[in-house]
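Here's what a typical entry looks like (Lipoprotein):
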Amino acid sequence: MRFLAISLLATVVLTSCSLKTTEGLRQVPFTKIEVENPYFSNAEIDYVYKAKIEVYGKNFGGILIIKKIAAKSHRVVFTTEFGSKLFDFQFEDDTFTKNFIVEELDKKFIINILKDDFKLLVNEKAKILEVYESENQRIYKTHNDERFNFYFINAGTGQLQKIVNTSKTKEKMEIDFTSSDGKIADTIAIKHNNIKLTIDLEKFKKE
């Protein structure tokens, strides 16, 4: 009876600690070394989006511009529709530079969240640790400091559909993409599970 109770307790603990991201997926062997995010990889394109950012009840709307300025360097600038700058960040390898940020957002914990979100968004390649499959997706697990990222690729089209950032046991943040051509994201939605910060981007359409 005691053994049964211990077994049931162990089952409950293991179940509660399992990662929902990989539930129902089968792990498969792989030879591919890296997974790619192509959406901000072309240095000849200015990636321009209508943007809505909500941070702990405060709403900011405007234009977000992402530009690849070197092999491993991106600039991310968020302005109002009238051109006033809200923030200006630069990412070069693991180096982050805050060129400017408005006072309302100039708080260390907010800057760190934005830094991590946009670093993941513009990162073009990540080394694969494990690979999983579902009926219509291939999922690549990669390392991210003390966390992990899971890249969900459509098995039919090869397009990146979402990235899920996790700890060992919990989903922390998710980036969802839609794309008509697999090269540029038409929409991007960033949401956190335990932080009141969301980012919604829609590709700017020229009139």
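The longest helix spans residues 2-17.

More examples are in the samples folder.
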